[in-house]
Write a structure and sequence with these properties.
The protein is mainly α and 302 residues long. 79% of the residues lie in helices and 0% in strands. α3 packs antiparallel against α6 (157-176), α8 packs antiparallel against α11 and α9 packs antiparallel against α10. The chain crosses the membrane at residues 20-38, 50-74, 80-99, 120-141, 161-182, 189-206, 212-235, 247-272, 278-298.
């Protein structure tokens, strides 16, 4: 309702308020969608479902973007009607998602399972940091790829939109292959996906041609989806089912914080350099260092 509200009334205070409500709603839905999977499924099935959720997120974003483009012909206010797709999702949820949670875990209730322990909070905080940096650098790529391509003479706004679309759609492949990747890399998948994402950004920074930019974007987009899904997979593996809602909410908060801080991070880098190549290289290096540090902390807690 808050998503479509600006279509009906466009006063600034009203639009501002409804966008805040919309953001709160999206945050709660993301957290709940992940915790539903973590609560109802176990083992390989849960890993596959988390990967498919990531793919569905990309498909949904692409379809909504397509709908916005079509609705734009009827005026800017009509674009908000794209959010009415949420009513369809709500209907499907009410019709097909079972309310009962599968309880295959030990029935014994312990004091530790009733609330987040200090160790659990530390784990969630570490994973939230990784999620924040991953989302921050990804948002920065989305903002800066067009200007980098123009600066390097590799293309215009139209070509940059193509590159960003490819980067987004490759997330579908990442989601489908997530279970396979987990079986190979296991808990080190977070480390390798973070390093790969960082290297993808460095490839974009050093790209001599459009096709190298596309290759770097594919690498970065794939690794981004895998890294973010791995964060939530680790939360679901290490936190008791009763506490997953709370734990997932904190992890999603890390994602939101990363997106929020992106302009400030880019502004801070801008104080050092305005060179697009260096901006991407700094972001990629930052992510690689963070991923290594986070994996070190996770192994200490294992």
């Amino acid at each position: 309702m808050s998503g479509t509200a600006p279509f009906w009334y466009q006063a600034y205070p009203f639009v501002f308020g409804t966008r805040i409500l919309f953001g709160l709603g999206v945050g709660m839905i993301n957290a709940k969608a992940i915790s539903i999977i973590s609560e109802r499924y176990q083992g390989k099935t849960r890993i596959q479902m988390l990967g498919l959720r990531g793919s569905a997120e990309v498909v949904g974003a692409s379809l909504i973007t397509l709908a916005v483009g079509q609705l734009l012909a009827f005026g800017w206010t009509a674009t908000f009607l794209a959010y009415s797709a949420g009513f369809l999702v709500l209907t499907l949820y009410l019709l097909f998602v079972p309310y009962g949670k599968e309880k295959k875990e030990v029935k014994k209730k312990t004091k530790e399972a009733s609330r987040l322990t200090r160790e659990m909070k530390g784990l969630i905080f570490i994973l939230a940091i990784e999620a924040a940096v991953v989302v921050c650098t990804n948002t920065a790529i989305t903002i800066r790829i067009p200007s980098l391509m123009v600066e390097r003479g590799l293309g215009d706004a139209q070509l940059s939109s193509f590159v960003l679309s490819v980067m987004q759609l490759i997330g579908i492949v990442a989601g489908v292959s997530f279970s396979f990747l987990i079986s190979i890399f296991k808990e080190k998948l977070l480390l390798w996906s973070g390093i790969t994402f960082g290297l993808g950004q460095i490839v974009i920074a050093l790209s001599p041609s459009l096709w190298v930019v596309v290759a770097g974007s594919i690498l970065a987009g794939f690794a981004y989806s895998v890294a973010l899904t791995t964060v939530f997979q680790l939360v679901s593996e290490r936190i008791p089912a009763k506490l997953l809602n709370q734990a997932t909410s904190f992890a999603v908060l890390g994602c939101s914080f990363g997106a929020f801080t992106t302009p400030f991070v880019l502004g801070a880098i801008g104080l050092l350099t305005h060179n697009g190549m260096l901006v991407f290289a700094i972001l990629g290096s930052w992510l690689i260092v963070t991923s290594i540090f986070v994996m070190y902390l996770l192994q200490k807690r294992a």
